[in-house]
Design brief:
With 97 residues, the chain is mainly β. The protein is built from no helices and 5 strands.
């Protein structure tokens, strides 16, 4: 969602034992604060997946190992990845942000 010049925001999530979604909020640069409001969502089937030896890396925004996430920030470029590790494993991030 891009709040920009103003947006009405109301959510009524259904009761659940698990979190079924999340939001990442980013402050817009001063020059873009009054931009046109917009909304979008990312469903699981649209998320880019990179499978590694001991990890699954889901790319929501930005680039990882040459693969792009579905969300591309118009005003602020972000990298947002979700890493699922195999039990008792470690993962190291070596890319330049």
């Amino acid at each position: 969602m891009t709040g920009g010049s103003g947006i009405i925001h109301q959510e009524m999530p259904q009761a659940s034992e698990r979190m079924l979604g999340c939001q990442l909020w980013v402050n817009l640069p001063a020059k873009d604060k009054m931009t046109t409001p917009a909304y979008g969502d990312i469903t699981r089937d649209k998320i880019t997946l990179v499978e590694e030896e001991n990890a699954k890396v889901r790319i929501l925004a930005g680039t990882y190992k040459g693969k792009n996430g579905v969300f591309e920030g118009k005003y602020v470029k972000v990298k947002y990845i979700d890493i699922e590790l195999a039990p008792n494993c470690t993962w190291e991030y070596n890319e330049t942000p």
